[in-house]
């Protein structure tokens, strides 16, 4: 039986009929591959169990194990976090999917996946007010209305990159200055648009958008998460940093944690509280310096 599985795995690696493979066949070939890699029996059982759970989730989203993207992986991680899975458990499950992606010879499916980390004393990676101003000036000076609209939308709404890619023109109400966003968990929320975000979205839509998808390429194809990452790399930022910046700026302006949590679509308010903690720690550091090095005394 093992010899048969090894033969099946070899044929799989040659790329024979991957799109025709059933999920069960893929799981069977994956477990055979794990055994060839020297994984213990318990590890194989665990990986098989978690991969079947991932397949069940994919099926609910009309996908399966032979046709999923990095976006589906990220959405599944958000789904697990919304269920209350710990960062450690979520990371282990991602490890299973990462190993499966390696088996598929598609490791890019699990690169740069955002996982909520365990509580640590680490600074949140976000832009300060001066850096935000510099970024927006650079983007506008670049002269691409689509890229300008993308940056303003991410920075002034705090939506996830997967949510940005899923936006259609029908989700944008420029008259009421708001957008309707569908979270990875399936929940929907309505987010107000700033005057500037609404202005640059309208300008972009008038110049670019022809199809239903809001953010598109020059060939009118819906932009992928990878495309957004590539666009933002030019300005030395990423979607996660802009989302963190949105949340941190709201907290710094005194907006309540409950409101920030609702706007960001956080299922767990403790995720939002880390921004308040970061602000309090920064204020404590500033106060310590000001109280110690008083002008005229030291």
Automatic annotation (TrEMBL):
InterPro entries: CB, DNA_brk_join_enz, Integrase-like_cat_sf, Integrase_catalytic, Integrase_recombinase_N, Integrase_SAM-like_N, Tyrosine_recombinase_XerCD. Residues 21-105 form the Core-binding (CB) domain. Residues 122-288 form the Tyr recombinase domain. This is Recombinase XerC. Belongs to the 'phage' integrase family. Signal peptide: none annotated. Keywords: DNA integration, DNA recombination, DNA-binding. It holds the Pfam family Phage_integrase. It comes from Bacillus salacetis. The keyword DNA-binding applies. One of its GO terms (molecular function) is DNA binding. GO terms for biological process: DNA integration; DNA recombination. SUPFAM superfamilies: DNA breaking-rejoining enzymes.
